[in-house]
Design brief:
A hairpin with a 2-residue loop joins strand 6 and strand 7. It is globular, with a radius of gyration of 21 Å. By secondary structure, the protein is an alpha+beta fold. The chain is 22% helix and 34% strand. Helix 3 runs antiparallel to helix 4.
Length: 248
């Protein structure tokens, strides 16, 4: 499960549209500045003004072959940890190509979509998958699916889609997207390793553990790159017990 700080009612979810244009200048703003602007805007203008100033989403890939979103091209109910609070039962889409989280709003008869400010979004859950913003391998934090987390061994997936571009007969740009893809990582203590198959997975560990891990994968007929999340969690638990046999 994602970390769950203070939970507020869904009515407060309209505060998400605080994803305003100053997000481009985040590197020049401290968290204190965000707090001051957020509080002042709410006090002076209320929710409606924040909606008007939101970073509205424009679908530039309408008509493309495929789509850039996680699993399906439709909004799904989920949760978001935004500005230190968790908001439940929110209508979300995760744009894998743009690596941005979209939220659908409905106020009276108006329906619109905004983009959440990444700097203020700590975690979210969608399609039963839990994502958290981590500085895993990049200088800048990114969203990773949290698959398994033991004390000294953790598994994360970076989801993505690739965009292809071509020029049509009328000189218009034509876009297409690949299916969902993942980069799979193991964090062992403070080191992070990417794995691709059973061989690269097993070689992450100490030589004294490799035989037992290789046998476990074979006995369960597992190809780690195709294993389900629950199968991966079981493997992580098995390896954790090998490393720390008296901790479980």
């Amino acid at each position: 499960m994602c970390h769950k700080p203070e939970i507020v009612s869904i009515a407060a979810a309209f505060l998400f549209v605080f994803s305003i244009s100053f997000s481009q200048d985040t590197s020049q703003n401290s968290s204190g500045s965000f707090s001051e602007i957020f509080a002042a805007t709410t006090e002076k203008y209320g929710i409606n003004q924040q909606l008007a100033n939101g970073a509205y989403f424009e679908d530039i890939y309408r008509g493309a072959k495929g789509h850039p979103y996680l699993l399906e091209d439709q909004f799904t109910r989920g949760t978001v940890t935004f500005y230190g609070k968790e908001y439940q039962d929110v209508s979300l889409k995760y744009d894998l190509y743009g690596q941005q989280l979209l939220i659908a709003h409905q106020e009276d008869d108006m329906v619109f979509t905004t983009v959440l400010t990444k700097e203020l979004t700590a975690a979210f859950s969608i399609h039963g998958l839990c994502f958290r913003k981590l500085a895993l391998i990049e200088d800048e934090p990114s969203f990773y699916q949290v698959v398994a987390e033991e004390e000294a061994l953790r598994c994360y997936y970076a989801w993505y889609r690739t965009r292809h571009e071509s020029i049509g007969d009328n000189e218009n740009r034509l876009y297409s997207f690949t299916e969902d893809q993942q980069r799979r990582y193991l964090a062992v203590d403070r080191e992070v390793f990417r794995y691709f198959n059973n061989w690269t997975f097993v070689r992450i560990f100490d030589r004294s553990l490799r035989g037992a891990i290789r046998s476990h994968l074979r006995q369960n007929d597992l190809k780690i790159q195709k294993a389900t999340d629950e199968q991966v969690r079981e493997v992580i638990r098995f390896i954790t017990q090998l490393i720390h046999p008296y901790d479980l």
